[in-house]
Amino acid sequence: MSLTVNAKTYNADSFQQNAVGYIGTLKTVSVKDDLALRRTSPKSTDAFSGVGRTSAKLTRTLTLTGAKTLAGDCIAEMSVSVPVGYAGADVDAVLNDMGAFIASASFKAHVKSQQVSF
Asked: What would the pLDDT profile of 38-60 be if each residue is shown by its tens digit?
């Protein structure tokens, strides 16, 4: 089983009950190129149907300049909670908006500058 993300292929490497780990083509003994998908099933109560949770995490080793070490890991993680009974179109809209925000110049500047603009 494999995933293609932005023209990069990740192959399934580890399997757990609610998680799958994938490795990318850049993966070596000392370089990380990992993608992980996880899920948590909804837990209902007498008054609430619960939420389902999913997450994706990308870890990639970067070459550093001007740092005390030659390499370091960049970790990008996305977590989504959706209530039981959601409409698929509503979740699509939220994910499309979040995807556009993550790809935006504003978010990239936020990550690179490590500052919060008001």
From this structure: 999 999 999 999 999 999 999 99
Domain boundary assignment for the chain: 2-85, 87-118
Both tokens assigned to 64: 């550093």
SS3 content of the chain, % helix, strand, coil (to 5): 20, 45, 35
Instruction: Tell me the per-residue pLDDT of 53-97, one tens digit each, with 9 for 90 and over.
Output: 999 999 999 999 999 999 999 999 999 999 999 999 999 999 999
The alpha carbons of the chain give a radius of gyration, in whole angstroms, of 17
DSSP class per residue in 46-112:
SS---EEEEEEEEEEEEE-SSSSSSEEEEEEEEEEEEETT--HHHHHHHHHHHHHHHHSHHHHHHHH
Residues in the chain: 118
